[in-house]
Specification:
Low-confidence stretches: none
Structural class: mainly alpha
Number of helices: 5
Number of strands: 0
Distance between the termini: 46 Å
Largest sheet: none
Shape: globular
Strand content: under 5%
C-alpha cells in the first residue's frame, strides 16, 4: 500500500530525472541551453543532487548506529562528492562525470544497507531509488561516451 509520502517521493524522484535527461540531450546535440553547455548543465545538476542525497543520508543515519562498512561508505560518498566538486573546478569533464557516477552508486549502496536494518529490502522506496539510480547512472555513462 502506498502512502502519500511514498507517492510524493516517487513523483519528486521521477521529476528529478528530467534535468539529467535534458542536459544529456543538449550535450549530445551540441546545443547550449541558457548559454550553458549540456556538460555544464549535467555536471552541476549532478553535483547538486549528489550533495542533496548525501545530506539526506546523513539525516537518516546521524542518530543510528552503523557498522564499520557503513561508516566507510558514508565517508566515501561524501569524499566522492567533494572530489567531484574539485574535478568540476579544475575542468576535467570526464573525471568529474566518472566521480559523480561513483558518488551516486555509493550513496545508493549506503542507503540500501541502512534501510535493510529498518525495513524490508523490497520496500517501495528502496525499489524506486534503485530504478532512479540505475537511470541516473546510465545517463552518466552516456555523458562519458565521446559524442562530439
Amino acid at each position: 500500500m502506498r502512502t502519500p509520502n511514498t507517492s510524493l517521493t516517487t513523483l519528486l524522484g521521477v521529476l528529478g530525472i528530467i534535468p539529467f535527461a535534458a542536459a544529456t540531450y543538449f550535450s549530445w546535440i551540441g546545443q547550449p541551453f541558457l548559454g550553458l553547455s549540456g556538460y555544464t548543465l549535467f555536471s552541476t545538476y549532478s553535483a547538486i543532487i549528489l550533495s542533496f542525497l548525501g545530506g539526506a543520508l546523513w539525516g537518516q543515519l546521524i542518530h543510528k548506529e552503523i557498522n564499520s562498512l557503513g561508516r566507510f561508505l558514508l565517508i566515501s560518498s561524501n569524499l566522492l562528492a567533494l572530489a567531484a566538486w574539485v574535478a568540476l573546478l579544475i575542468g576535467i569533464p570526464s573525471l568529474s562525470i566518472a566521480i559523480l557516477l561513483l558518488g551516486f552508486m555509493s550513496v545508493f549502496w549506503v542507503e540500501a544497507r541502512s534501510l535493510k536494518l529498518i525495513r524490508s529490502p523490497n520496500a517501495p522506496y528502496l525499489n524506486m531509488r534503485f530504478v532512479i539510480t540505475i537511470i541516473v547512472c546510465v545517463l552518466h555513462l552516456i555523458m562519458l561516451y565521446p559524442h562530439y
